Amino acid sequence: MDKKRVLGKGLSALISGAEVSNSRPEAGEEVGVSTIPLDEIGFNPNQPRKIFNDNSLEELADSIKQVGILQPVLVRRLETGETATPHPDRNEFTGSLKYCVVAGERRVRATRRAGLSEIPALVCTYEETESLKIALLENIQREDLGPVEEATAYQELMHSYGATQEELAEMLGKSRSGIANHLRLLTLEPEILSQLQEGKITRGHAKALLSMPAGPGRIQLAKMCQSRGLSVRDCEKRAQLGGGKPPRRRKARAAAAAEQDPAVRELTERAEHAYGSPVEIKRDASSGKGEVTIRFYSDDDLLRVLKIMGVDTDLG
């Protein structure tokens, strides 16, 4: 079987043709889709996604109320002595957890919000490393992880699976450089990673900060990016100077900058904010002709920029 094709199909490839049964599986029975009480299902403590959008969960819960659950979640039976993270709203007196979510945690959370007490689930027997692998694939395919969450998931998967960057890239259908660039983010200070995870700085800012030596200077520049609203380009310039203020341009360049149309400068800033990457607009004042340059840092970053442009990047 073609591994890449299977991974690309996602969870639906695992449950194609399965029928939902109202019975609950017992140990030793053939694995299939069953209806399982929510109070028996816990969450994987190593789940790569840590933040769930409240509005998104409400929308999914409303959809479940109207049309039901269109696709079963994937769970595995907990081994003796193994633990999982219970849902905050779970009744602690209903018994012990019996299953752990492998893929579909958003659906489990939304189903509880919808007021239901059970959910259709496919019970599998994956090992811990396989569970993390499927959870990561499910999240990447369905709803993009934040850059810090995705990098952390890659790191955990490499550790658990014993895979190199090349092997992980092959496993997930990603480029090795893309995996490497994500992992480099984890070398940033915890303060900067918190800013990135909370959306106070962009991935572009983080990549610019990586060009600086670790230490107080890098942390200070990250705070400046947030407090002063520095563009990615400004962050890059300051990072190249060790976090200091860029030197004054020579007279010719200063004069050219002064003559630049204020509207072009404003549009440049807006474009950098929209793309999270340095943008340069060159325009001939007499003819109005020119060019727009957007910088990217890896194959994955190129695809990200193209998707923002509305370009279909699926070449399969």
Write the layout of secondary structure elements.
Layout: H1 3-9, E1 33-37, E2 41-42, H2 54-67, E3 73-77, E4 99-103, H3 105-113, E5 118-124, H4 128-142, H5 147-161, H6 165-172, H7 176-185, H8 190-197, H9 203-209, H10 216-228, H11 232-240, H12 251-259, H13 262-275, E6 279-283, E7 290-294, H14 299-309
Parallel strand pairs: 2-4, 3-5
Antiparallel strand pairs: 1-5, 3-4, 6-7
Question: What would you note in describing this structure?
Answer:
Helices cover 47% and strands 11% of the residues. α4 runs antiparallel to α5. It is α/β, with parallel strands linked by helices and 316 residues long. It is elongated and about 70 Å long. 29% of the residues are buried. The strands form two sheets. Strands 1-5-3-4-2 form a five-stranded mixed β-sheet. A two-stranded antiparallel ribbon has the order 6-7. The two termini are 17 Å apart.
Distance between the termini: 17 Å
| CATH architecture level-2 label of the largest domain | Alpha-Beta Complex
The share of residues in helices is: 40-55%
> Unreliable segments (pLDDT under 50, ≥5 consecutive)?
1-21, 27-31, 249-258
State the CATH class of the largest domain.
Answer: Alpha Beta
Q: Radius of gyration over alpha carbons?
A: 24 Å
The number of helical runs is 14
How would you sum up the major sheet? Answer: 5 strands, mixed
Percent strand equals 5-15%
Helix/strand structural class:
alpha/beta
Structural domain tally: 3
Helix-strand sequence: HEEHEEHEHHHHHHHHHHEEH
Shape: elongated
Q: Would you tell me which CATH topology of the largest domain applies?
A: Conserved hypothetical protein from pyrococcus furiosus pfu- 392566-001, ParB domain
DSSP E strands, number: 7
What number is the mean pLDDT?
75
Sheet with most strands: strand arrangement: 1-5-3-4-2
